[in-house]
Amino acid sequence: MKKILLASMVSLGLSAPQAMADVNLSGFASINAGKVLSGDGAPQYDIPPTFLADYPIVSAYEEEWSFKPETLFGLQVRADMGGGLSATAQVVARGADDFDAQFEWAYLSYELNDNWTLQAGKKRLPLFYYSDFYDVGFAYVWMRPPADTYTWQIFNYTGINALYTGEWGDWSVSGNIYGGREDSDNNRLLSQFFFREPVREIWKNIIGGVLTLNKDWFEARFTHMRYTNERFQAGEQVTWDGSTERDGRFYGIAVNLDFGQFFALSELNRLDLDGNFDSAMLTLGYRLDSVTPYVGYSTYEQKDGEDGEEHNTTFVGLRWDFHTSAAFKVQYDKVDDKSFNLAVAGDSRSLTFGVDLVF
């Protein structure tokens, strides 16, 4: 039904008079394969040797070669109605979802002036540097953004936001102020991986902001968000210290250095929610014409008395831009799971490769 709806939208847009809307189509895809070379798994949870490549959608590789966990196809439709008004919709079909097409984005934009744009609808929650183009593998050097850092269970929201772009002296500046909520029924990460029973995760009263500064070889991005969390597990409302709600605060900073051939990418994040959840990553790379080798490290830590979640990943990879719109990538990941009484997937060594393209 969703595929029929998408086809109908595209057909109507393409047949509409030019006076009504200028419709643009673009797309992206990743055809990836991988396997766990060795691993411990988490026998206490009946988890075999596993590499959890993507936490929010539970893209997991096991000991057999598979194309399903990270292969995806996306289509974006943008209709420009003129006068600064436009509509954007993005549909993604993922192997992890048996290629069931889902609307990831659907929002309206209105340009107030050269600096400010208002938007309303469903969008990606801009917690991390690569959040807005997380699904577009061609846009970054790795096979995927480091999983230890990009680990939260909510990644979209429905609401409103105001975008800013401008110049402050020699600095290029962009910003985003946003607010809304997300109600994730049968949340994938919590339901399928952590609790193994239906979990409804609600983030409400979301309000946040992003500021990015760029000059020459230096870029810094600062982000902060506040929200209220509710949760229902197996149909029963979860309480924390007798309360059905808890407030969370997210802080993040990303610093990127790009000297042409050599570059460094970094992120540092903290979620304050009944304790501190800390994540970080660092990547170093070197461009050799169309080939870019890179190495990196990511980490996640959350301690709660005798329990806690702590894991890190060391990775090394290569990107080859063999076409102006396509890149081949290969990556080796070494995961060390040091969680206390709460192993996520255990230690693992894995190999993944694939092609990312845009069209």
Short summary:
By secondary structure, the chain is mainly β. It has helices at residues 2-15, 188-194; strands spanning 22-39, 51-54, 59-61, 72-82, 85-94, 102-111, 116-124, 156-168, 171-184, 199-215, 218-233, 236-237, 246-258, 262-272, 276-286, 291-304, 307-323, 326-337, 348-358.
Q: Could you walk me through the main structural features you see in this protein, from its secondary elements to its overall organization?
A:
This is Porin domain-containing protein. The chain has about 350 residues and is mainly β. It has a single domain (about 1-359), classed as Porin (Beta Barrel). About 5% of the residues lie in helices and about 60% in strands. The chain has two helices and 19 strands. The strands form two sheets. The chain has a 16-stranded antiparallel β-barrel with strand order 1-4-5-6-7-8-9-10-11-13-14-15-16-17-18-19. The longest helix is centred in the N-terminal third of the chain and has 14 residues, at about 1-15. It is globular. The two termini are about 25 Å apart.
Radius of gyration: 21 Å
Return the string of H and E elements. HEEEEEEEEEHEEEEEEEEEE
Poorly predicted regions are 1-19
Strand content: over 45%
Q: SS-based structural class?
A: mainly beta
Q: What would you call the shape?
A: globular
The level-1 CATH class: Mainly Beta
When the domains are counted, the total is 1
Give the termini separation: 25 Å
CATH topology: Porin
Helix content: under 10%
Q: How many individual helices?
A: 2
Strand tally is 19
**CATH level-two architecture:** Beta Barrel
Overall pLDDT metric: 91
As laid out across the biggest beta sheet, the strand order is 1-4-5-6-7-8-9-10-11-13-14-15-16-17-18-19
The H-level CATH homologous superfamily, spelled out, is: Porin
> What is the makeup of the main sheet?
16 strands, antiparallel, barrel
